[in-house]
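Support case: tryptophan complex. Customer-provided input:
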Amino acid sequence: MSEEVKVERKKRSLSLIQPTSIPTLGNYLGAMKGWSAFQEEYDTIYGVADLHSITVRQDPQKLRRQTTELYAMLLALGLDPDKGIVFIQSHVPTHSQLGWLLNCYTQFGELSRMTQFKDKAAKNAENINADNVNAGLFTYPCLMAADILLYQSDIVPVGADQKQHLEIARDIAERFNGIYGKVFTVPEAYIPKSGARVMSLQDPTRKMSKSDPNPKGTVYLTDEPGVIMKKFRSAVTDSEMSVHYGEGKDGINNLMTIYAAVTGKTMDAIEQEFAGKGYGDFKTAVGEAVIAELEPVQQRFNQFMQDKSYLQACWTKGADLAQRVSQRTLDKAMKKIGFLLK
Ligand code: AMP
Ligand code: TRP
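Agent response - structure generated as follows:
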């Protein structure tokens, strides 16, 4: 009969992002910018982590709008539903199902050590009006591990702040495999060399964040060019007046990091380019580079937002594919644990 053909499966790249606002320049440079490049050589799975977003109370209407916008943004960034899976997490029930199972293979102690939980719990507890340190916030990494492990993902492109969550996902996978044999691929984090940690333009000692109370510190991907330029022109720097990377120069370091990530230039080349020039020139150049980078993304985003039926067709297709791939892993895990499959 025919020779046995061994089909090697491509490696898989997976990442999700929460629809808690329009993504920021930090989300883009730290994670999303690189996602489309994986489509050629990897099987890719990218999605909107709407289940994760309710660990903080969400307004229902706003959540619906932001989920749609974020999905449109993923397409605008070049993710192609014909090349890979582009889906919405809550459309695929296997995530919640495996998430529960993994809760039972994760220790209270290890979840207690997660810095994101500690930060968010402290923030919530401080705010009397938003006292909401809920169990979901605590077990969040188990759902994230489920997102990753369901697809046998090899690499997970994320910003530096997710490194600890990736480590716990690996620990959970190894623990489960240790008990039951190889069920899950143990994933690797893929953290970009430049842009992994973009800081606030107003307080460069803090991460640029969607939830920054000062909107001047955060560049959103849909900001108009004039708004972007204004934010860069008013970025906090220092009194030294020399564009070089160094200690105590958090503001300039951050602007150089952004410029390097957008233009691909090295830090040395940037220092040379701006030798003898003032911060004003440098800030304008960074603003211009970011505006030019985002312009085509914004155009595509606006087009997709005008075609809701296309978006809907894409996320329906994404959900069907994601369900099919992830169900296999869920069944395998359930069988190993001792559940009766119907
Ligand atoms: P989130 O907004 O928390 O859903 O994050 C989505 C992705 O963006 C994750 O991979 C984060 O690591 C990344 N990310 C978030 N904020 C930043 C930042 N300021 N700099 C670099 N990457 C970031
Ligand atoms: N926790 C991630 C964040 O806040 C979002 C996320 C959810 C994620 N599930 C994931 C990232 C799976 C990578 C893989 O940024």
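The longest helix spans residues 308-337.

Case will auto-close in a few days if no follow-up is received.
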